[in-house]
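# step 3/5: fold
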Amino acid sequence: MSTSPDIAGHPGRILVVDDDRDNREVLGVVLGWEGFVVLTAASGEEALAIVAREPPDLILLDVMMPDMNGYQVAARIKGTHTTRNIPIMMVTALNDLASRVRALDAGAEDFLAKPLDRVELCVRVRSLLRSGRDDRAFA
């Protein structure tokens, strides 16, 4: 079922941000099977450092993390000129309307509730990678 993640000449580089190691590993394996290059961060601060050093093509961001939650991380990324066009997908156990609206308000382009469906995850990731590359072409 896999289509090539090689969009615009290189595989998509995805940063997975989650304080739960098991969640990072599962997402890394699933996305790796699909041919994506996966970077991981265990905290918001670590994610911001990675984004500053080597901006990914897409960020999968957990909402509920200690110290700095996903909404805060998204707002910081979207508030910086050099990183504001990186698409963000919030991935969380929260599935209520208020949480989805808050994620979008913080700058996320998409929201996916846990437990994740592998097929839906991969389709949404490809879609965001395409739209993110289109946005950066015009930035």
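# step 4/5: annotate
Residues 1-7 have pLDDT under 50 and may be disordered.
# step 5/5: archive (pending)
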